[in-house]
Amino acid sequence: MSTGANLLERVQSGLGAQALETGMAHGILVLQIAAESLVPVAGRLKQEFGFDLFLDVTATDWPQRRPRFDVVYHFYSTRDFVRVRLKTQVEEADPTVDTLVPLYGSARYMERECHEMYGIRFRGNDDLRPLLLYEGFVGHPLRKDYPKQREQPLVPYRREAMSLPPLTSLPNPIRPAFTQGLTPGSVIVNIGPSHPATHGTIQIVAEISGERVVRTDVHCGYLHRGFEKECESHTWHNLIPYVDRLNYCSALINDFAYCEAVEKLMGIELTPRCRHLRTLLAEYSRIADHLTCVAAALMEMGAMTAFLYMVTIRDYVYEHLAAATGARVTYTHGRIGGLGRDLPEGWLERLEEILAQMDTFVGRVHGLVDRNRIFIDRMRDVGVMATADAIDWGFSGPVLRSTGVARDVRKDTPYLAYAELDFEVPVGIKGDNYDRYYVRMREMDESMHMIRQLVDMLPDGPINVDDRRCTLPAKHLVYTEIESLINHFKLIIEGIQVPKGEAYSYVEGANGELGFYVVSAGSGAPWKVHCRSPSFVHMGGLHLMLEGYQLADIIPTFGSINMIGGECDR
Amino acid sequence: MSATTPLPRQQKSAAFEYLTTRKDEFVGWARKFSLFPYPFVTACCAMEFMSVSSTLYDTDRFGAALPRFTPRQSDLLMVVGTVSHKQTPILRKVYEQMCEPKWVMAFGVCASSGGFYQNYAALPGIDKIIPVDLYIPGCPPRPEMVIDGIMKLQDKIAGERHPIINQDF
Ligand code: SF4
């Protein structure tokens, strides 16, 4: 028995008495507990059983049920690579649970989100200001009784074509945590959200003393587009375009992660060709993502040549992916149980050409910046993050690896075809900006290596499972057979019917652990789709990397994290 | 050229010494090749914005390359990506900070109409709060489409009235 399974058994027997119900669901141990025992159980999970990474908290709304809300927590053990889900029910009249902030730093941000979206109160969390929404927003949009289209505009709309309502005073969508400096000499500055280095969607309120940052208050939510609400009003397949636009730098990884969650619920086993193709495309996407991140970060520091090199090669990747999927950035290529289409003729040959060019271009960037004095001065020993802090704040992906731990979902709990591949997990030394840059660069090499292996081992065969519950029948059958016609009609109009239940899929996104928690009520549309997005979690701990450094260091540090607005704010 | 020793007729320089044009045409011609964009970049469309402004597509060719990261120095507001309600006060403020003459481009369907985000969070098109000169469809638009958009905008600028000193000049 693996150590992970062993651990889960120990947890089950150790905490069984405190739980109302226990069970395994798709590899995750589920404990249903009473709201009072939440903090004791979570405390024991962390201290006794080593579940040190707090992944996520969200809620599910069941308006017809008493008690109305489920509050759902996910935990991860970075030593044994297993996950636990805690669920507790709260009443609508008093939706209160205790906060987990004393146990996990990352709980602070996530509880704020859950609070504004569902109105769950976290007793003891003193900072429940709006995060994704804005000051003055009334109601909780993810509750089922909040109409999807009820807008609450902050700026009056224009009436006729060329009129502009007079500008009186514009409301401030956020409330900063502090407006007074701690010491008389300090100044409070505001950076963003419309600032080239904050990628348009992050606002950092910083108190500075001289050039040194004393404390910061990071606001996100400027790109909150109601992803989860949109999902609930689309069928399982129709919402894939929304999933694409979470992390738009590597949209395919999102696609496949979401599909995997639904496939878990339906008990679908992918075809070998599909598994390998998905792995290949996911790695290809990861390269595009890292290229974007490094290019943007370098450009913000003035390395325009490196930016142009990397964006050029990324453009080749985009065009190449467009040949396979039909779009350059947002692909909508994943299907539940397969892929949108197979590779076109000659795609793999072109792939090898691009990989060879990539080697050259990436090599040039190494040559330009790696030993460049200006670059090193701005990156080395700036934005340092210790491993313990990183785990406490829920970090994962390249940011966690840069602190020196080799935690990678692809290695730790292999999914798709990763178990068959030979690859390394690059790690940094001390978790500073330079390490984050270097880990990303090395990961691109590893991805290229994986892609080359995958090309060699790519099996033939169909890409979609032969399963009438989710795969569309062949077009010629739709035109000639009544069964296929009905099948096609039902799948399109009613959507695929996913059995009741819930599943959490987890993959290594380009920025860290990307998880999809889906809940099905047994119909053609999801009851809930929640995305555990690495960028959002990283924003919760960003202040640790900014405080104590110079004001100008905010730009490379922020750039090295690769915050993606779509995924962060959803 | 000294007035006392006129050049013989055949030695006169071949370059233009003067030409006649309409004032608006002249100013429009100058303005259309000196667009300084302010990228108000929020979402996925930014990926294509990066592409279109770098090597392979290169908006430099249209005199519309150098982004100014302060609205006060720019005359083309490119709204790239979804604008949420939370973002609206900022967008309006940025627009107000730009000096005349100014043009606004809605880059992508989200900026044009909200795209497929028709919900509580997203603004259904930036023209709800500021005037827009040009809409570029696509989710995200391909770089060619953006270039086409820029050229259309240049045509529009070339054909516009350009009051410089006052309405009469
Ligand atoms: S138009 Fe499409 S690609 Fe552009 S921001 Fe909107 S969703 Fe993203």
What would you say this structure looks like, in words?
- The complex is a heterodimer of chains A (570) and B (169).
- Chain A is built from 20 helices and 15 strands.
- Chain A has 570 residues and is an alpha+beta fold.
- Chain A has two domains: 121 residues, NADH:ubiquinone oxidoreductase Nqo5 subunit (Beta Polymerase, domain 2, 2-Layer Sandwich), CATH 3.30.460.80; 343 residues, Orthogonal Bundle (Cytochrome-c3 Hydrogenase, chain B).
- In chain A, strands 1-2-5-4-3 form a five-stranded mixed beta sheet. A three-stranded antiparallel beta sheet of chain A has the order 8-9-10. Chain A has a three-stranded antiparallel beta sheet with strand order 13-14-15.
- In chain A, strand 14 and strand 15 form a beta hairpin.
- In chain A, helix 14 packs parallel to helix 19.
- The longest helix of chain A is centred in the middle third of the chain and has 29 residues.
- With 169 residues, chain B is of the alpha/beta class.
- In chain B, 30% of the residues lie in helices and 11% in strands.
- Chain B is built from five helices and four strands; from the N terminus they run H-E-H-E-H-E-H-E-H.
- In chain B, strands 1-2-3-4 form a four-stranded parallel beta sheet.
- In chain B, strand 2, helix 3 and strand 3 form a beta-alpha-beta unit.
- In chain B, helix 1 runs antiparallel to helix 5.
- The longest helix of chain B has 16 residues.
- The mean pLDDT of chain B is 82.
- The interface between A and B is large, with 60 and 46 residues.
- Iron/sulfur cluster (SF4) binds next to helix 4 of chain B.
